[in-house]
C-alpha cells in the first residue's frame, strides 16, 4: 500500500510516517520506480506499535533503544510489559514531583494573598492611572 492509504488506516499524516522513516524506526517494504513508498502489513503493524508507544509517553529515543536490535513485532510481551512497568514508575515519580510543586505553589499563593503588603505587591487597580 502507498503512504496515503497507510496514513488513512493509521489516522496520521503522511508527513508523520515520513518523519518516522527519517528517524530509522520504519523502512518501507519497497520503493517503486516512480519513487513512491510501498508499505506492507508488517510495516503497518510496526507503525501501530510505534504510535502506541508514543501515545503511552515513550520518546522516540526510548522506542529506538527498546527496539534497536530487532523488529518491533518480535519484542516478547514480557519485555514490553517490563518497559511499560518502568514507564509507569517514571510517571508515578513525575506525579509525585508535580504534587510537591503544586503544594509549594499553593502555599506561596495563599501566603501572598494573606500578606500582600509584606511582599510590596502593587495594587493592579491603580496601575496605569
Molecular structure report:
The protein has one domain (3-116): Multidrug-efflux Transporter Regulator, Chain: A, Domain 2 (Orthogonal Bundle). The protein has 5 helices and 2 strands, in the order H-H-E-E-H-H-H. It has helices spanning 3-10, 14-22, 41-55, 60-66, 77-114, and strands spanning 30-31, 37-38. The chain has a two-stranded antiparallel ribbon. The relative contact order is 0.08.
Q: Using the 3D structure, state the CATH architecture.
A: Orthogonal Bundle
User: SSE order in H/E notation?
Assistant: HHEEHHH
Name of the CATH class: Mainly Alpha
Relative strand content: under 5%
Shape descriptor reads elongated
What labels would you give this structure?
129 residues; mainly alpha; Multidrug-efflux Transporter Regulator, Chain: A, Domain 2; two-stranded antiparallel sheet; elongated
In short:
By secondary structure, the protein is mainly alpha-helical.
Topology:
Layout: H1 3-10, H2 14-22, E1 30-31, E2 37-38, H3 41-55, H4 60-66, H5 77-114
Antiparallel strand pairs: 1-2
Amino acid at each position: 500500500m502507498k503512504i496515503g492509504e497507510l496514513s488513512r488506516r493509521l489516522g496520521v499524516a503522511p508527513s508523520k510516517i515520513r518523519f518516522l522513516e527519517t528517524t530509522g524506526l520504519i523502512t518501507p517494504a519497497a520503493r517503486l520506480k516512480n519513487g513512491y513508498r510501498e508499505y506492507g502489513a508488517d510495516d503497518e503493524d510496526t507503525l501501530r506499535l510505534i504510535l502506541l508507544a508514543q501515545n503511552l509517553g515513550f520518546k522516540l529515543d526510548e522506542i529506538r533503544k527498546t527496539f534497536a536490535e530487532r523488529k518491533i513485532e518480535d519484542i516478547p510481551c514480557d519485555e514490553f510489559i517490563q518497559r511499560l512497568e518502568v514507564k509507569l514508575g517514571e510517571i508515578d515519580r513525575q506525579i509525585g514531583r508535580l504534587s510537591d510543586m503544586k503544594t509549594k505553589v499553593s502555599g506561596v499563593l495563599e501566603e501572598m494573598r494573606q500578606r500582600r503588603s509584606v511582599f510590596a505587591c502593587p495594587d493592579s487597580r491603580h496601575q496605569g492611572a
